[in-house]
DNA sequence: CCGGGTCATAGGTCAC
DNA sequence: GTGACCTATGACCCG
């Protein structure tokens, strides 16, 4: 807000109100020894604390006109001193020790900086997610590589021109969705720190769950109550539906129950992106190396922190509750993806003629 | 302006002038029981009158340097107390309104009141847990009621005098541990709000997992690396160990892997008590009614809030990370208790002559 | 002497 | 960077 009520000229009008000795605007008291306005107070403070120094681009006479004075930091600072302002320049070691302790567990970043960091993180995650989504929509492939091969040579899966008459089957959609998630998570820097063995186990453990999670979110965003695949059909192959036709309840529950919870919680896309990587960084994955566990645990911590911050910002009332509600979604996801695995496994045993691609077998744990 | 005539260093110069016991600046007399300067006097007064509470952003050692001490309110207050300051916390009617507003989740309570509430909650949970523990140690029973019967008539399981020569078997310990957890959770008020059907499903789902969790914590507290039963023997019946003698790895992992994680995290008993009930209030339990889910979800929220507060108080660096690490323990618990169920199930099929009590069959989901 | 209280102002935040 | 505004601090006063 501009101070319309603060004339910038020198005329010493309205004797009552005190005026800044430096710039003649209204003052509310002494600061650092001189009667001064908030602005001059803060200006002086910043100069001393940050040990700044300026040089006048005129002839050190800017103090003659108040307007010019405010433009020339050298003359302004000079006038502050002339009018008796003084402040202890805080000692070097103090500044340093403060900065040094920063990197440790960096708690000393100001709230604003933290928010800035968070929004950058969210923006990046959002961009990655959008790319994944775009790829899923535009990509089509007939490749049939195992999870291991894909992880070792991420480029092997080639985009193939799709016959426009060809209706993408549920099994193909599953493949594309799984694959798009593998590339998505593969983009995170820390993945490179992992050994191949760990990487394989981690992706084997996570890919189906988080692809399923993505499907649930898609359903929420499309305001449907039942999950369909990106093409808008049932996620299950027809033959599988047929096998369970006498008891479709289980198939339906997988597509509906967790969606309800997402709707209840009104999960935002930012929350989804953070949870996605938090869930990915599951340090409880069996049989991975201690190094891998540490890396996952550390990153789970980092993203949890961000999620909590986000909850605090958007969910003033009760951030911890919100946080637990969100984290607990993992329960719904694991429950139902396990169920799905079982149903597919039984189908696979009953219909061995039905050919699933390797990636599906690997991630569904056949 | 800083008091230039008041040196801030510790050197006890100029013997004549009295110095503040807290910050070493000049003091003019005693205040609230300690020789102190005006500043420390007023600081202490404000904290007590306004019931403020602070937490150190360092490691509760700021009192080592006088400059840091003045910046850290937590350490400053601590030092005031250490040097003998005391002041009656005035008791107006405000204190009473606190208890009335207890059940809501409202946020308007002051930091100090919140901490008070939290410590009451923790004390209560701790007492309940201690009782459960005492019961487990002293109780013995030959009853064989189903989970449903126990839930309907909690009194049916009678304490029986045990033949002092009788060595309690692993199977009996399992029964006693499971039973003690059922009575433990049955003591929570909100359980009464649940219908019988829901209650049964909830206990069926939770009892083994949380009894297992308790066993893991017992192992942590006894500083062992491998879970044994409360009697100090293997948790598995001998016959079961025999069945898996060629591959004892799975049996061992259940007893060890999650213990490692508990040790890593140095889980406190307060955290355990809160997690215990948070995990119990799992709204993702399949097939329970919407009312039950709501009740569980609400209570999970309440206790999550408390856990987060606790993490904030004890884990300055990074409460959200701590919180996620703790909540994520549920992953370890479910993973391993499922594995345990499977191992018992297979054993049950292989050795139908081995009679498990009804409660064990119900909670292990035979 | 010491408890209770006041108020100018230092230090910091954040929208601009 | 700037400056309006907020909260914690502590010198001082009164009974
Ligand atoms: Zn000014
Ligand atoms: Zn100038
Ligand atoms: Zn002092
Ligand atoms: Zn401190």
From TrEMBL, chains A, B:
Gene Ontology terms, MF aspect: DNA-binding transcription factor activity; RNA polymerase II cis-regulatory region sequence-specific DNA binding; zinc ion binding
UniProt keyword terms in alphabetical order: DNA-binding, Metal-binding, Nucleus, Receptor, Transcription, Transcription regulation, Zinc, Zinc-finger
Subcellular location: Nucleus
A GO CC term attached to the entry: nucleus
Pfam families in UniProt: Hormone_recep (PF00104), zf-C4 (PF00105)
Family matches, as SUPFAM superfamilies: Glucocorticoid receptor-like (DNA-binding domain), Nuclear receptor ligand-binding domain
Claim: Cytoplasm is one of the keywords in the record: no
UniProt cross-references to Gene3D superfamilies, sorted A to Z: Erythroid Transcription Factor GATA-1, subunit A, Retinoid X Receptor
The name this protein goes by in its record: Uncharacterized protein
Lineage of origin: Eukaryota, Metazoa, Ecdysozoa, Nematoda, Chromadorea
């Amino acid at each position: 807000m501009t101070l319309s009520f603060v004339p910038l000229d020198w005329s010493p009008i309205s004797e009552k109100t005190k005026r800044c000795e430096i710039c003649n605007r209204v003052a509310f008291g002494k600061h650092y020894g001189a009667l001064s306005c908030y602005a001059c107070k803060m200006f002086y403070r910043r100069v001393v604390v940050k040990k700044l120094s300026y040089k006048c681009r005129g002839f050190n006479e800017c103090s003659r006109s108040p307007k010019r004075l405010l433009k020339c930091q050298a003359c302004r600072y000079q006038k502050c001193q002339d009018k008796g302002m003084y402040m202890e320049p805080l000692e070097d070691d103090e500044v340093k020790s403060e900065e040094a302790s920063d990197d440790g567990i960096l708690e000393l970043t100001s709230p604003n900086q933290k928010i800035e960091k968070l929004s950058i993180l969210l923006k990046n995650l959002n961009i990655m997610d959008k790319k994944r989504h775009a790829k899923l929509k535009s990509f089509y492939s007939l490749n049939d590589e195992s999870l291991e091969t894909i992880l070792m040579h991420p480029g092997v899966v080639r985009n193939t021109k799709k016959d426009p008459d060809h209706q993408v089957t549920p099994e193909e959609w599953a493949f594309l969705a799984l694959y798009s998630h593998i590339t998505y998570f593969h983009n995170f820097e820390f993945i490179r720190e992992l050994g191949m063995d760990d990487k394989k186990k981690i992706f084997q453990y996570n890919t189906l769950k988080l692809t399923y999670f993505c499907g649930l979110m898609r359903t929420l965003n499309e305001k449907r109550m039942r999950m369909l695949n990106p093409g808008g059909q049932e996620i299950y192959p027809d033959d599988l539906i047929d096998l369970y036709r006498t008891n479709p309840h289980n198939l339906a529950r997988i597509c509906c129950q967790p969606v309800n919870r997402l709707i209840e919680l009104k999960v935002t896309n930012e929350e989804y992106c953070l949870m996605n990587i938090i869930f990915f960084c599951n340090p409880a994955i069996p049989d991975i190396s201690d190094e891998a566990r540490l890396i996952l645990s550390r990153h789970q911590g980092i993203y949890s922190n961000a999620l909590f911050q986000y909850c605090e910002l958007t969910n003033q009332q009760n951030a911890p509750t919100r946080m637990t509600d969100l984290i607990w979604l993992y329960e719904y996801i694991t429950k139902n993806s396990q169920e799905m695995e079982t149903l597919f496994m039984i189908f696979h045993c009953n219909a061995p003629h039905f050919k699933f691609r390797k990636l599906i077998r690997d991630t569904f744990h056949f």
